[in-house]
Design brief:
Chain lengths: 242, 391
Amino acid sequence: MKSLLFLLVPVFAFAQVPSGEEILKKVDENSWAKTRIFTSKMIVQGRRATRTITSKSWVKGDEAAFTEYLAPAREKGIKMLKMEDQLWTYSPQTDRIIRISGHMLRQSVMGSDLSYEDMMEDAEIVKKYDAKVEGSEVVLDCECWVLLLSAKDKDAAYQSRKVWVDKERYIILKEERYAKSGKLLKRTEILSVRRMGGRWVAGEILFRDLLKSGKGTKFIIESVEYNADIPDYIFSKASLRK
Amino acid sequence: MLMFKLALRNILGAGLRTWLNVIVLSFSFVAIIYMQGIYDGMQDQASQAEIQFAYGGGQYWHAAYDPYDPFSLQDSHGKIAPELQDKINDGEATPVLIVQGSMYPNGRLKPVLLKGIDPAQKTVAIPSAVLAKEKDAIPALIGARTARNSGLKIGDYVTIRWRDANGTFDAQEVKIMEIMNTLVQSIDNGQIWMPLEQLRQLSGMPDEATLVILGQETDSPAQVSLGWVHKDMDFLLKDLKQLVKTKTIGASVMYIALLLLAMLAIFDTQVLSLFRRRKEIGTLVSLGMTRVQVIKLFTFEGAMHGILAAGVAALYGIPLFIYSAKAGWKLPQVTEGYGLSIGQTLFPVFGAGLVVGTIFLVMITVTIVSYLPTRRILKLKPTDALRGKMS
């Protein structure tokens, strides 16, 4: 009997570990929405100075996004529109709409650690990746599942990712993105979590391109509204000039 | 012959006035030929360098390839046409694969073009053989400008990042094997050369290429499968010729200014000559010369300034041209930004066409300018002229 109990312990322990897919679904349930409207601050920590850029974004699923920069004065009025895999920017100084493509997509957005390509990445993780639970670790004093994500399709931007998911709130607290060769390219760390719009939201995020030197770029989400009605005209090139 | 002797005697008789005109005009001759020789040398030198290092005997481009369109570059690759593959197998052509990427020298992001080339190729003068020397790391070859802009040295490792054929990010470290000192910016600025097979493997584009460079002595295949477009030398050198043409147009403003100065001197001399030689004109007409013959004489005198100027220009111009063509013209560092593959020393080219063309242009202009003041002779009455009156 004693030996039978000994055999059952690991079975019960194993049963408590949800599958990678289940965890990802819960993560998407918490973060994914049909539409989102949020205001944020991007703090670019350059070699010589630090700049804070405020913006407001309207996001529709993973197909469309519109961002307007509100401050500082130099960047005020700059707008960005993402439609599927295309990106346009508008600058009030030149009053011109420019399509960002090719080499330019790889360049950093306003000197940050984010490239335009990174800005365009915004899909439900569970649709794009298979997940395997690797174990658990503590991040930000929270118990986290460590998941290794492998892309389902060959055309994913990152073939493998590693995420640390809070076991209670199902929010990603840390993420690493790897090149096909296995080289670590980017790391995202959540510095604080807030409750906004009835969901757990990363309040402050540190984004680092690990191939670049520097302290990284901080994102502070100031407010967020989920599943709000966004008129279709927002996601049109005409709205860039408005 | 009589007119020639008379005209020569008259203008030599004018002494210093003639020689001042001749010297000024000879400066124009030499300056125009020298400047134009510099531009011809520029085009000649840059064309040769582009042919040796980049263009070979012409190129075949993948149908989607447009070097000036970053939107289409990621789709500009494909399997090489069998007719071109035969040329490559015979060593008469070499394929190049181009992939967009980024490099991170000293932690800074720089967009680059990763270019794959066969290390054993002999089609163009790129020192690709160095890419066969490294087995443990991915070897890379960069130009001096890229090295200077990124602070890279031979033996340095630098991380490069790119997206493969499926759009997936990949990154590796490459080792700088050689820094090539090339005049041709189109194979240098923001470019990293790697072994073709390695780049094909890393980018997931097996047996593919973006363009195929033909050898200088290689004939184009009679027919090439769809998807590959032939670009001949006229097309490839079009931008360079256009650039030199633009610079020549800019310089022609100076030619016009020089010619105007010389022409002004000749015009004034002719007007003065007509005024001072009224009695002589009257005498010549009285003795039976027609007015048109007198006009011819004066026009010929004016034009002789051009002939004498050509002689004087030859005296000091020919040694100057020979010396310049041999020793070259040291260029300041700033000329690197002009977009021409001309290196640090420019060797002017003074072709026969240039010299003859310039002499012809100047002679025609001098003759016209010499003729214009003499039209007054048509209205001149010989009696008034003999009395020293100019009607």
